Amino acid sequence: MTAYLLRRLLLMLPVAFLVTVGVFLLIHLSPGDPALIILGEDRSPQAIAQIHQELGLDKPLYVQYVIWLDHIAHGDWGRSITTHQPVAIAITERLPATFELGITALVWSLLVAIPLGTIAAVRRGSVADQLASGVTVAGVSIPNFFIGIVLIFVLSVSLRLFPFGGYVPFFQDPLESLHHVALPAIALGTAGAAINMRFTRSSMIEVLSHDYIRTAWAKGASWRRVVFVHALKNALIPVVTIVGLQIGGIIEGAVVTETVFTWPGVGRLAVESIFNRDYTVVQGIVLVAAFSYMSANLLVDLVYAWLDPRISYA
């Protein structure tokens, strides 16, 4: 396992290099000029040239990339063009809120998806299965921003059960934190719950048709033992793949939800930085998102071996 981890970490290096190239080119080749945002009304050619020189934008693109990559390698992610705050600090300050929202949404989706998907598979063709299929289609079809707006209107404005917006750190007040994160987590996790439910159902149906499941039934094993001990663990392998992608996509998945609920996370910071043409912050956020995907994929492979002992990385 140790040798496998080392190999995977080494293979991540060229992927990380390609990610930096893609991020840099996409940001710098996109339309817009940061100097115009910084200068405001004073947009004389001399002032624009001075800003370009200060930011290094007057150099060839490949020189800018080498300088930026050297700074990244030394832990210097640059400074925000609009706030002059170090990019690493700006992202680090917002990460706890994004992770709290993303993890809560993920837990919510799994608590809904796995039980309902299992019931739909065990009672295939029943009313419960049809309801679960309908929920799956609705969850995938309805965008999360619309779900968020409906939740705000019904549960915040009309019934006043949950607050609209606001963020309380979990370790400061756990109950109040969950009270504030509930609505955005439901909005963000509904699509994931629908997808996970569909994969759980399909995988459970396939696993329940295997010979070892028939053997367990023939030996008189109870319903709970057959489903939860013999079938569910193997059925979760495809679900783990999807969940790994969802973990890696926490940052970009939360962009719209954080904007709707004014949640002070990295997603909202990305939206603000894009509108302000703050390319240094956008580059940092995209890098963090890309590395989170790579880390999630590595974690998924390790969980595979735990779920199915037949999988070996020797």
Characterization of the model:
By secondary structure, the protein is mostly helical. The mean pLDDT is 84. The protein has 13 helices and no strands. The chain is 77% helix and 0% strand. The longest helix is centred in the first third of the chain and has 36 residues, at 87-122. The chain has two domains: 2-73, no CATH class; 90-307, MetI-like fold (Orthogonal Bundle), CATH 1.10.3720. It is globular. It has helices spanning 2-29, 34-39, 45-55, 61-73, 87-122, 127-141, 144-158, 174-208, 211-218, 223-248, 250-260, 266-275, 279-307.
- The fraction of residues assigned to DSSP E strands is under 5%
Uncertain segments are: none
Q: Can you tell me the CATH class of the largest domain?
A: Mainly Alpha
- N-to-C SSE string, H for helix and E for strand: HHHHHHHHHHHHH
What's the mean pLDDT score? 84
Shape: globular
Largest sheet entry: none
Q: State the end-to-end distance.
A: 6 Å
Number of strands: 0
Helix content: over 70%
Number of domains: 2
CATH 2nd-level architecture of the largest domain:
Orthogonal Bundle
Instruction: Specify the CATH homologous superfamily of the largest domain.
Output: MetI-like
Radius of gyration, in angstroms, nearest whole number? 24 Å
Structural class: mainly alpha
Could you say what the CATH topology of the largest domain is called? MetI-like fold
Number of helices: 13
Please render the helix and strand layout as text.
Elements: H1 2-29, H2 34-39, H3 45-55, H4 61-73, H5 87-122, H6 127-141, H7 144-158, H8 174-208, H9 211-218, H10 223-248, H11 250-260, H12 266-275, H13 279-307
Helix pairs in contact: 1-13, 5-6, 5-8, 5-10, 5-11, 5-13, 6-8, 7-8, 8-10, 9-10, 10-13, 11-12, 12-13
